[in-house]
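Hey, weird one. I pasted the Extracellular solute-binding protein sequence into the form twice and got a warning about non-standard characters only the second time. First submission, copied straight from the form history:
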Amino acid sequence: MKNLTRLAVLGVASALALTACGSSDSDDSASGDKVIKLWLAGETDTPEALTKWLEKEYEADNEGTDLKIEHIDWGQLVPRLQTALSDENQTPDVFEVGNTQSPTFTSVGAFTDLTDKVGELGDDIGPESFVEAGAYDGKQFAVPYYWGSRYVFYSKKAFADAGIALPTTLDAFNTAVVELKKKSGDKNYSGFWVPGQDWRNGISWIFANGGDIAVQEGDSWVGKLSSAESVKGLEAWKNLSDNASAAPKDGLDAEAWVPFNNGEAAAFMAPGWARWSVPEEMAADLGGFALPGNDGAAAPVFAGGSNIGISAKSKNQDEAFALLQLIYSDEYQSLLAENGLGPANPEFTAKMGEDEFAKSAVDAASNSKLTPTSPNWTEVETSQVMEEFFGKIAGGADIAKTAADYDAKLAEILNK
């Protein structure tokens, strides 16, 4: 298997500085207990109530251990891991990565092989696309941590005032949000918030029209943004950017709820946890539904979420697996679901609730899709190739020609 030095392809210059100044972490706490380190991605993505529960239960079940949980900002996750994973004194014992980052780490030997033990975590784990992202060369190295579907949040009042029923097809949705903007009479109002560089939502229109980002043909990856199906989806997305939205052409998908909260947008699309970013006083007006496709099912949307696994360099392999087992316990899976995070064990999905938001999340997840599972996909994200591509489309570049140009860029990176 390829060496961890392959992570250098990500071009993370800060990793060198971190290596130079980093010091070895002690394996023992002040009390003499063995320290087990868990790195979680995002400052608040895993709620505090869940981490407190993990600490309490793990230390009670594993006498003589001290579970230390560190939250790593998403922007620092890759460089921190790049530095730590090759050093048994610095590595976390268990760590989380984004689902699209997972193939990079599984392919370089960063995770312990779980193939013979994954059955001990449960008979049915998912989503399947996450399981696939955690596998490499026929072996399972990482497993799903949680998933979060992207779906549409909307103002019930805005739709009702415009006399627009909830759309049941993607074509009807496209028409409805353009009409919402038109009826507002306000050039700064958005029927649907469409930042120009928002590729994570934009790819749903590609997928729904039968297109793709890139596919593996034999041993090579081939860009598919310029396929007829992908171009059709991009044309529909560009129409929304021009006629349904007042969002900046160079805008990103971060905090899409802000214009909604300010009364500047009738709808936006985001992972389910965005619900908690809408003020309580607006809760009665907030609705949700899965983006519809044109085939009677939910449109294929990008599945957000994470995988988790054991560091291959951890000196505490048994204790680390015990932590994975606790994460996969019925109690923790219930806590994930009750906090709006899709559980890896589908038996607990119902605990996400029975309201329209829970239903939207489950419906959207039923047809979700990941980015290409090339080990080099992380480089696509860190170099912001997709943001650049969608920004050019939103800015008026020729769609077919630009798509062909970026197919070549994708192929160059994915086939390194």
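That's the output from the first submission. The warning seems to come from a hidden character in my clipboard, not from the data itself. Residues 228-243 form the longest helix (16 residues).
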